[in-house]
């Protein structure tokens, strides 16, 4: 079967093509799948996309008209896919069943420590020959409290690292489930209001769903300690960017670390809020790279190959979002 893969990054391409070699023919493009590029998929039974693809009704209809029958998203996120319309069109849609937890958790800690210890500011100074310590004062994480919002595999990995720092743990899970591994680390589960009020470091590890959109809104930000650090390595839309920009403008929060790809309004902010945020030295923004390690990429690609194989064999699995009709 011939597959057209959109949004393939330079580092990803050899891994993707090697994984499919001898199994299926794959063509890799570095451009995303959007309305202006969907015509390129004509004649391909399967396409592979990223979370930055536009898979709304119009693009799905164009894909189906061009002969596409299967969409394999190389991401655990699927908020960009109109799954209801895909089902009506008789398409099969699959995703990576889980975010690679260690890559994302470790990067969340990269953001947290970089923000806390003013690493970017320090590096920019020393490159100019300025070795002053003024304005670079951080805090020990040891003895403070980490608030873990979402305690699935990624949140649990983040909690283990926090435990290694000697931090207390507060947790909240959108499914209302208490992770036994987190409990063994001494995590106390609490409602969000308490977590936001008491945590010194807050890290978001929940998927973007209707119930978690703008989970961190103006009220949540107002409840946080003035010197709290907030990290989001879970993608955009979880935080009200405009409310965050106003909070930082008021010189509240000690630091903010955001790992997002500003593709959708919920991430970039229609009013330029993200651009305003990046003007402040206590805010660190990275381009959605939390998952981007060779280990995680190999896991993602392996899952994508399996999704294609399952489609060919007529199997549905936990990764299947929409199954083709029998």
What does this entry look like structurally?
Helix 1 runs parallel beside helix 13 and helix 4 crosses helix 6. This protein folds into 2 domains: 127 residues, Rossmann fold (3-Layer(aba) Sandwich), CATH 3.40.50; 186 residues, NAD(P)-binding Rossmann-like Domain (Rossmann fold). Helices cover 36% and strands 16% of the residues. It has 326 residues and is α/β, with parallel strands linked by helices. Strands 8-7-6-9-10-11-12 form a 7-stranded parallel beta sheet, sandwiched between helices. About 2% of the residues have low confidence.
The fold-level CATH name of the largest domain is Rossmann fold
**Largest sheet descriptor:** 7 strands, parallel
SSE ordering: EHEEHEHEHHEHEHEHEHEHEHHEHE
Radius of gyration, CA atoms, in whole angstroms: 21 Å
Oligomerization state: single chain
Protein name: 2-hydroxyacid dehydrogenase
Keywords: NAD, Oxidoreductase
Organism: Actinacidiphila oryziradicis
GO molecular function: D-lactate dehydrogenase (NAD+) activity; NAD binding
Could you give a short description of this structure?
GO terms for molecular function: D-lactate dehydrogenase (NAD+) activity; NAD binding. The protein is built from 13 helices and 13 strands. The chain has helices spanning 13-20, 57-65, 83-88, 101-116, 119-127, 153-165, 180-184, 192-198, 218-223, 241-249, 265-268, 273-277, 294-313; strands spanning 2-5, 25-28, 46-49, 70-73, 92-94, 145-149, 168-172, 188-189, 201-204, 229-232, 255-259, 283-286, 320-322.
């Amino acid at each position: 079967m011939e597959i057209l893969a959109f949004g393939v990054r330079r580092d990803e391409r050899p891994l993707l093509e090697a994984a499919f070699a001898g199994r299926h023919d794959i063509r890799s493009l570095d451009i995303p799948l959007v309305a202006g590029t969907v015509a390129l998929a004509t004649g391909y039974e399967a396409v592979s996309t990223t979370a930055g693809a536009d898979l709304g009704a119009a693009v799905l209809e164009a894909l189906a008209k061009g002969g596409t029958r299967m969409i394999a998203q190389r991401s655990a996120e699927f908020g960009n896919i109109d799954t209801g319309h895909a089902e009506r069109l008789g398409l099969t849609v699959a995703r990576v069943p889980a975010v690679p937890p260690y890559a994302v958790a470790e990067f969340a800690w990269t953001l947290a420590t970089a923000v806390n210890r003013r690493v970017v500011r320090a590096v920019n100074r020393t490159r100019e020959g300025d070795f002053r310590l003024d304005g670079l004062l951080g805090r020990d994480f040891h003895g403070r409290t980490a608030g873990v919002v979402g305690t699935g595999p990624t949140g649990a990995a983040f909690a283990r690292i926090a435990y290694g720092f000697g931090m207390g743990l507060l947790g909240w899970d959108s499914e209302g489930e208490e992770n036994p591994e987190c409990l063994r680390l001494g995590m106390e589960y609490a409602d969000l209001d308490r977590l936001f009020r008491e945590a010194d470091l807050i890290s978001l590890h929940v998927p973007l769903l209707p119930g978690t959109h703008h989970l961190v809104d103006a009220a949540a930000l107002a409840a946080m300690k003035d010197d709290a650090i907030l990290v989001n390595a879970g993608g955009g839309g979880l935080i009200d960017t405009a409310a965050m920009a106003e909070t930082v403008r008021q010189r509240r929060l000690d630091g903010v670390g955001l790992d997002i790809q500003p593709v959708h309004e919920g991430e970039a902010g229609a009013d330029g809020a993200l651009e305003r945020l990046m003007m402040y030295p206590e805010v660190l923004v990275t381009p959605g790279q939390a998952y981007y390690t060779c280990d995680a990429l190999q896991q993602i690609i392996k899952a994508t190959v399996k999704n294609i194989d399952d489609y060919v064999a007529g199997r549905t699995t936990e990764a299947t979002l929409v199954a083709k009709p029998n």
